[in-house]
# Entry
Amino acid sequence: MYIDTTYTPTSVTVTFFGNNGGITCGTERGERSGFTSASVIYRADEDGTVGTHPVAVISHRLWRSHFGSDRAVVGRSVAINRRSVVIVGVADERFRGIETEEVDIWVPLAMATPLGLMDDQGGDWRTNLFTTVLRFVGRLTTTGLIRTVATQSAEALARSAPPELDPTPRVLVSSLIVGSGPNRPAAADLALWVFAVTGIVLAMTSSNLANLSLARSISRRREMASRLALGASPGRLVRQVLAESLVLTFLGTAAGLLLAFWGSLIAGQFPLPPGADELNAQLLGFASLVALFSGAVPALVSAMSVVRADPVRWLKESRSMAGPGHQRMRSGLLVVQVALSAVLLIGAGLFVRSLDRVVSVESGLDIERIFVVSMDLVRAGYEPPDREAIYEAARERLVQIHGVQRVSTSIFAPLGELRYRTGIGVAGQASITIDESPHVNWVGGGYFETVGAIMLRGRGIQEEDRSGSPPVVVVNQALARLLAPDGEATGICLAIKSQLRGGDCAMVVGVVQDHRSSYLDPDIPPILYLARDQHPEPASFVDAYLLVRARQDAGAIAEQVREAMRTVRSDLPFVAVESLEDRLRPELVPFRLGAVLFSVFGALALAVVALGVYSIVSYVVSLRVSELAIRQSLGATSGDVVRLVIRQTMVPVGAGIIIGMAVGYLGGSLIEALLFGVSARDPLVFAGAAAFLGAVSLLASYVPARRGATMDPMATLRAE
# Structure
């Protein structure tokens, strides 16, 4: 569990473990002055009694950034929600918690409620039937015990779970690695696809190297045969061939590592999990070995051909006698390269179109100039009257900022998940039933004007809608259609089961245009908006967001808002100020990463194909110079020669494009879940990938074909 809490001057994240769970980190309890890779386990007495041992282990990052790597930090205190805890250890630099979000402080579970990290009404989470945020973490001796653990845990839960709460309790056993569990995020699937795409690019590069090595070895046959005939030993020639190839391989590997370093700098610009953009020795070593192996194998094959060489036969062979077997091999390798490149280009096109659909989503709100201000007042221990006073004072400060246009409050932030639903009915009209319970949000005066929502009828929530005034409610179009399919929803009085007592009802005073409750969810649920000041019960246990709409000149508004919030109260916890666009950015990360990575790999694939086609055509032209010269001597024009070479080259290219498109079409279902608003078999993407790949291949073959067609046929024949 991860919870934002107070640590001046910035926010930190807190998680807690039981004494049976243990964590591998930091320093032994007895080694208060040293930092070694040892095990810090909260003692049984520290996690046995609620609130008696306020101790904590801090992360290596927090120790370095906030304590200046002070080796005397153990024994010092930090404040969490205005309560002091003693630092008893520093985590090892490699330990970052059990999930992707980085943790700064670990405290015992017994301190969860006293520190305000669990809402147990001052009790013990162990005896609270409604505790729902815990997970049991264990290490199995063998992986084969997973089924046994799941069965025994389910039996224990069935014996202990109150049947009135859950008659069919269920146990879910999964790996701590998020990508291996049942709640695998889209980013995890994207990582697997990136791994697969890396293998595709590696296969393309290897086939291109094999093709180039084959062409190079054939072109040097007469040279090698001559040297063997003059007395050079096969071993010497093998060493020469290997040395030349390995030098090129080492240079290519070094260039690749340099590109990887630059790529890691670019990857650091994305909100990736901690350490995802780091290049460690193991990773660089593995990549280097793969690159060296990919370059060394074709070189070794070429060298072995020298060992088995027949100098007399090689010297008798014409320069153009490459053999039908070699030609088929070259064409086959080219087909493989083009097919794999087509698959990558299709993937790149799908992700780019998907990203375009994501960034152009019409949310129904004007989100460009909205800032969201949040504070952890509930966990910090502020009572409801104090919290309301803080919100009111903050609003007064914020509206005085020149760049601020409007300020309002809301329990749920715009385009965030609405997590509360309630049953409703139409007062005095039992015949009207609403089967679908609408979502609820409690908002302050001017909310709809602040978020840029469009009122279709009536009015929104106003400042005058306070405690003691007649209850009012605003509904969206989806709910208005349920309330009055053939009429006007305004003026209807709603009986809201969880909010109003004693037969009271809230008057519908306005209908707001439908807008998304979640940015990437196209479904518009029925929603009702209640005046927050008229419903103090939710405000008693839930923090509210302050929503700020900036004017056009909103360049430095975030810092001005932070400065204004510092003047509200001196003891405020950390105040988070971020634009609504920044809050939505994590939802776009998988699509943005997919578009960038697939585009990069697609560009690499195009470069490999272009290089492969160019090298093969150049080599074929060099072998066929005599044939081409004879054709020109017999009346063929330069255009005829160019068309002949291109036609023969584009046959394997066309076959590769067809195969690649077939693979992309058949495998489209595997990537469907990673796309947004785009079919994995989008005909526009397939046609574009085929056309682009064909054009690049055509250009790569035209250049050497044109060069061969412009040779002087008489000079060529005399040279032969």
Q: What stands out?
A: The chain has a mean pLDDT of 75. The radius of gyration is 35 Å. The longest helix spans residues 580-623.
